[in-house]
Amino acid sequence: MKTAGIIMIIGSLLLLGLFKFPLWNIMLGAPQYPDPLGMDIYITGIQGVDEFDLQNIDGLNHYIGMKTIPKPEEMWEFSVFPKVILGMAILGVIIGILGFFKKLNYKFFLGWFLLMTVLGVLGMYDFNNWLTDYGSNLDPNAIIKVTNPDGSPMSYKPPLIGYQKLLNFDVDSWPHIGGYLLFVGMILTLIAFWLGRRASLKKTTQ
Amino acid sequence: MKNILKTSVALVSILIGFTSCNNSGKSNGGSGALASNVAEKVYVPPGEYDSHYAFMSGGYSGNLTVYGLPSGRMFKEIPVFSQFPTNGYGYTEETTPMLETSYGFVPWDDSHHPDISQTDGVLDGRWIFINGNNTPRIARISLTNFETEEIIEVPNSAGNHSSSYITENTEYVVAGTRFSVPVPQRDMPIKDYKGNFKGALTFISVDPEEGHMDIKFQILMPGFNYDLSHPGRGKSHGWFFFTTYNTEEANSLLEVNASQNDKDFIAAINWKKIEEYVNNGGGTMMPANYAHNLYDEDTHMATSTMKKEVRVVNPSEVPGAIYLLPTPKSPHGVDVDPSGEYIVGNGKLSANLTVHSFTKMIDAIENKEFDGDAYGIPIIKFEDVLAGSVEQAGLGPLHTEFDGKGNGYTTFFISSEVVKWKLGTWEVLDRKPTYYSVGHLTIPGGNSREPFGKYMFAMNKITKDRYLPVGPEMEHSAQLYDISGDKMELLLDFPTHGEPHYAAAIPAEIIMNNVKKIYRLDENEHPRKATNESETKVVREGKNVHIYMTTIRSHFSPDNIEGVKVGDKVFFHVTNLEQDFDVPHGFAVIGANTAELLVMPGQTRTLTWEPKQVGVWPFYCTDFCSALHQEMQGYVRVSPADSNLDLSWSLGE
């Protein structure tokens, strides 16, 4: 149970990487942009990969009537997400410590993991909603209007994850370091649960 | 009849035999296989980079062109001494001060000898210097933005040809006069030239941080023609060498009268000694009038200042600082090998190359082995300074460069070839023709302690039939050779722009990563900038109307302007708000008696327009900036001179 507790603590602390590293990254390459433009999505806001990338993405997007990339204060997510992540990290560390001193059942580890999963799914759902709105809620007076074969306006929604071709742009959307740390951390808490369970089972069989 | 037929058949068979033999010979040994091998050596696949930059002087274009090696592709023309309507250099309010001189605005020059800055005798790739020959000037071009940043006029000089070579730590950029003149200038009979005219050799100090130039001193030499120069390096650092011709001091029909002396001189100048003399207060401040033009990258503007005096030194004031080395037959180039030991005099009317030894020169000075003097300057005995000569190397030697492997490469104008020879043994190793009548040649870093001896290119004066005919006037040609082997191999023939004299070349990696992509808008300190659309405005100051305008894909702000009147002088101050690589915008307005503006991201440029007719006049973006480039346009309403219409401006209303 001691090892499980330590792993639980480490797993939870890895969440804090999201304060330093981006959760997600979207790169936009095109014939005219051999060095792609890029957005790093942090839990506290969106930043350009290179200094002027956001400005240049907004400059291009005005042709198709997309809204400008939101500033941190323009989206509630960027003030709530940091609090949720910090809260979950603290909660995980407390559970880990209590587990270490055997003051608490290993099932709490799984409980934390499930809560984090639910929050993560909600976060992804919210992120996807924003991408959809960003990519399809277009200015009706946009300079360039592109329609699908059925006549409906084309959406410029970047993929939630993976690659997609949007007009002349090759769009790649993948987790970044902070995101990977989050996944590793969550897997560690699952391992902590499994180790705790094994230790507990050993005890009962003895 | 039968016999005749038989004989004919036999003859035909023999002929076929010959031709097929000939064919097989060609395809086996031949030019086909060789040619494809050579093609690979100069082929830079699409999207890949050349390994070297080459900066070629523009000659009578007054500019500097940037090429890639080994492909021979031209990347850019950098305007230096000439107006350049392509981007408005020399036309805009910001850049016209660059072409100010003591003679007023001079919109053209003849640029000759680019030289890249050095640290410890090795190319550092910070700046490139080039001389304007006709109205004596030296320019400094930044190798981070590839723009001319500074031009200084050289007083007391005429035909600024033995320039703009730098010392091995870029302490000085040196400018010598080809034409001696009265100093100071005055009204006097031309026939009194001899003994009265002076040749000024100018040492311009270069600030090690900013590169700013300032004339430290001028040496007023006898009235010879100072043709070319080169710095000492390594052991000879601290010395500078100038070739002379017309030591006869003829003032007419120089073709004959300046070719009488069997030997002219290479002037060896101990500049460290003169610098010390000057630092201790030596020399005389002499009244002068010369322009110093400086471009400020933050304000995006040039300013021109007239300087009113210059420090001059007469050779007799500093004994032991200047010596003359006799050199046969009106030497043209003087070139110093990477070690600094050998000083090559290219006697252009000779078949031989004369090579002097720096060590022998110092010994001769110590032993006072002199052969008289010229105007008090000691002449060292020819035999006592001669290291050797390359015998019968070719006809009309002009210039020599070095590969850093102990070999010299000399151009021969009359016999139209480059000859490779060995330093020390003076034997000729190889010769290759050029097409035609080669002037200078360049090896990357060939004028430094450490040449990069892979490529050499020859710049020719005559092109004739090398390319498809284009009428009597044509560009010049250059040939690129691989010099990595024992024998030179001709790789490529490519046209050059203007008339390149000398060129400087450098491995790409030394500068390519320092090159700017944009100018930062937040560092723009132009006094009439507008860094966002809310700062745009139109202001009347008497008859002058200042339009603070911005550009961003794909509109001007403002794009409708009213209240301008006939007789006004309108200044379009255009700031490009883009901060994206390679998104310039252009600006042109109908009837402007000037050139367009080409405004780089983050930059401000000003076009002056004096409307002469009432009407509504369009302006537009001249650089195809975006998909909506054709929509990037606007109108200025011009009312009669007595109109009471107030200024107004708008965008999207």
UniProtKB/TrEMBL annotation, chain A:
Keywords, sorted A to Z: Membrane, Transmembrane, Transmembrane helix
Domain of life: Bacteria
Transmembrane segments: 7-27, 80-101, 108-125, 177-196
Protein name: Uncharacterized protein
Organism annotation: Subsaximicrobium wynnwilliamsii
From TrEMBL, chain B:
GO cellular component: cell envelope
InterPro entries, alphabetized: Copper_CuA, Cupredoxin, N2O_reductase_N, Nitrous_oxide_Rdtase_Sec-dep, Nos_propeller, NosZ/Cyto_c_oxidase_sub2, WD40/YVTN_repeat-like_dom_sf
SUPFAM superfamilies named in the record: Cupredoxins, Nitrous oxide reductase, N-terminal domain
Subcellular location: Cell envelope
UniProt keyword list: Copper, Metal-binding, Oxidoreductase
Xref: Gene3D superfamilies: Cupredoxins - blue copper proteins, YVTN repeat-like/Quinoprotein amine dehydrogenase
Subcellular location, principal: other
GO molecular function, one term: copper ion binding
PROSITE patterns to which the protein is assigned, alphabetical: COX2, PROKAR_LIPOPROTEIN
The keyword Metal-binding is assigned to this record: yes
PANTHER family assigned to the protein according to its UniProt record, in alphabetical order: CYTOCHROME C OXIDASE SUBUNIT II, NITROUS-OXIDE REDUCTASE
Protein name: Sec-dependent nitrous-oxide reductase
Gene name, Swiss-Prot/TrEMBL: nosZ
